[in-house]
Amino acid sequence: MINTLLFDMDGVLLDSSAIHTKAYLDTFNAFDIKIEFNYLDSAGKSTLDVMTEVVSSIGYINLDPNHLTKYKQECVNKTFKNLTEIPLFPSVEDVLIELSNNFRLALCTSASRGTTDAFFQSRVSRELFVEVITSDQVSSSKPEPEIYLLAMDKLKVTASECLVIEDSLAGLKSGLASGASVCRIGDARSISNLPRLISSQITNFETLIELANYLRVRN
User: pTM here?
Assistant: First the structure.
């Protein structure tokens, strides 16, 4: 029986794709990196993994992925500091409060600690989550399952007791590899873009509200 919900942050709770896209592009521009970039292809992965892939693909041996990662994270943090309101998806706070009454919640994000701290400057309370795990705490990022396995270990639960809530392909692969049940938050039409093996193993909800309604009925 599912008693624990493991949430991704970006794309599920936080509408930050525009912020991350701009930060990547600003970084590439600052270091004169000429590359076609689509953030959706990198969503769910750690920034360091993305930058390592970029440096490898362009063959710039004088570029340090760690330096690029730090620059990109600084761009993100600067943007968050200048925001008048954190861009949450609709009803995130209310849904999380409701779900926390019936489930234990954990946040398992590929974002840095700094970005996660910025998220908690919104109306969402850190106290809603029993555990908060960021990219700084794992050695392998999504699609590897390490972050979800670490959450299960910390919470002393089995995979059969967990539901992973994700949006990106890397995140969905990570959740499935952990052995947990997995659902996706996103446009129902775009699920057809996922590999058939992935889409056949997950449940799709367009919004967190739909997920909450499903769990309410199920429980």
Answer: 0.89
My answer on whether omega of the bond before 65 falls inside 30° of 0, hence cis, is no
Domain 4-16+86-218 fold: Rossmann fold (3.40.50)
Place of tokens 């199920």: 218
- b/e sequence 95-129, b meaning 16+ C-beta within 10 Å: bbeebbeebbbbbbbbbbeebbebbbebebeeebb
pLDDT given for residue 219 in this prediction:
65
* Residue 59 confidence (pLDDT) above 90: no
Domain residue extents for the chain = 4-16+86-218, 17-82
